[in-house]
Amino acid sequence: MTRFQSCLAHARALLILGLPLIGSNLAQMALHVADTVMLGWYGVEALAAVILGASTFFILFILGAGFPIATTGLVAASIGAGDQTQARRATRMALWLSVLYAAAVMPIMWWSGPILRLLGQDPHLAALAQDYLRIAGLGMAPALIIKTLQSFLSAIERTRVVLIATLVSLAVNVALNWALIFGNWGAPELGLRGAAVATLATQIVGAAFLGLYAAWLPALRPYALFLRLWRPDPEAFVRLWRLGWPVGLTGLAEGGLFNASALMMGWVGTIQLAAHGIAIEITALAFMVHLGLSNAATVRAGHAAGRGDLAGLRDGAIAAMGLSFLFGLVVVVLFLTRPEPLIGLFLDRANPRAGQIVAFGAMLLAVAALFQLFDAAQVMALGLLRGLQDTAGPLWITVVSYWLIGIPASYLLAFPIGLGGVGLWLGLTIGLAVAAVLLVARFRTALRGPLPA
C-alpha cells in the first residue's frame, strides 16, 4: 500500500468513527444554541444574562472535563493493547473525579453574582446570571458523567449511541425550553429560569441514557463498568489526575480566551455583547466539526500507540489534518459571504435593536474567518497529542498562546488602540495562530520519540 493509499484508508476510518462524534458535538452545541435562540426571542436582556451565565458554567465545565477527556486516550491505548481491565479502571476513576469536581465548584456558581460584578458586569445582568447558574449549576455532575461515558464509548468505537443520546437530549431540551421559557402547554412562564430548568433536566436524561446503555448492553458487560463502583482505585485515580488536570487547564486556557473576550465585550456594550454571543455560537458550531474529527483522531492515535504502530500514527495524523483543513476552507467562504443571514437566525427581526446586532455580528464573523484554519490546526494537534497521553506540554503552550499573548492582544487592540469589539476578536486570532504553530510542531517532534506504553 502506498503512502497516499494509506492516508486515504485512514481518512475513511476517521470519518466512520468521527461522523457520529461530529453529529453528537453539533447536537450538543445545538442545546446551547436552542437556549440562545429562544431567549433571544424572549428578550435581549435575558439573552445577555444567559450568555454571562452559560459562559461561566462552560468555563468551569471545561476545567472539570479534563478528566473525562484524558480517559479517551487511556481507554483507547488500553483497547489497542487488548487490556479491558485498564479501560474499566480509568473510566471508573473519571466518574469519581467528575462528581468530586462538581461538588467543589458549586459554591462558585451559587454566589456568581458578586463575582461577575467584581469583573465589571452590569449588576442587574449579574443577578440574572446568578439566578440561571443556581439552577443550571446542579447539572455539572451529570454533564461530566455524560462526558466520561461519551469518552469511554468513543474509545471503544461505540460512537453511534453517543449521537443518539445527544439527539434525545436535544429534543428534550427544546421541548422544555418551549414550555418553561414562554409558558406554553400550560407551564409557568419562567423566562431565563425556565431555560436553566430545561438544561438541568436534559443533562440528567442524557446521563441516565448513557449509563443504562453502558450497564446493560451485552457486548459491554465484560467491562463491568459499574460493578463495585464505590471501591477506590488509588493507582488509576492518581494516573488519571496527573493526565487530566493539564487537559482541563488547557481547555481553561482556550475557554478563558473566549470568556475573557465576553467579559470585555460587556464593557463595550449590551448590543455588542449580544452580537458577540451569537457570533460565538456560530463559530462554535463550525468548531464542533473540527472537534469531532479531533476526538476521532485521539482514539485512532491511542489505538496506534497501544499497538506500537508509528506508521499508522503518522498517516492517520496526515488524514486528520487534511480533513479538518478542507472543512475549514468551506467555513471561511460561508462566513465571508453569508454573515447577515447567519446572525439573523438568532433574533426576532421585530426587535428594534436587531439591526444593530446583525450589523456588528457580521463584522465579527468576518474576523472569525481569519482564525478558522488556525483553530482547526490547534484542536487537531491537541487531539493527536492526547492520543499519545501528552497533556502537560500542550498545557504550557496554550497558557502562553492564549493568556500571555491572546488576551493581552485583545485588550490592547480593543481599548488603547480603539478597535472595540472587532479588536477583541483580532486578539483571539493572534492567540489561536500562535497555539496552532506550536502544537503542530510539538506533535511532529513526538513522532520522532518512543510511543507511550
Automatic annotation (TrEMBL):
Tell me where it mainly resides. Answer: membrane
Classify the protein's membrane topology as the record does.
Multi-pass membrane protein
Q: Which Pfam families match?
A: MatE
> What keywords sit in the KW lines?
Antiport, Cell membrane, Ion transport, Membrane, Transmembrane, Transmembrane helix, Transport
State the protein's name. Multidrug-efflux transporter
Q: Which residues cross the membrane?
A: 12-31, 51-81, 93-112, 132-149, 161-183, 195-219, 240-267, 273-296, 317-337, 357-374, 395-417, 423-441
Report the record's Gene Ontology biological process terms. monoatomic ion transport
Q: Does the keyword Transmembrane apply?
A: yes
Q: Which GO terms describe its molecular function?
A: antiporter activity; xenobiotic transmembrane transporter activity
The signal sequence is none
Is-annotated flag, keyword Nucleotide-binding? no
An annotated GO cellular component: plasma membrane
Q: Where in the cell is it found?
A: Cell inner membrane
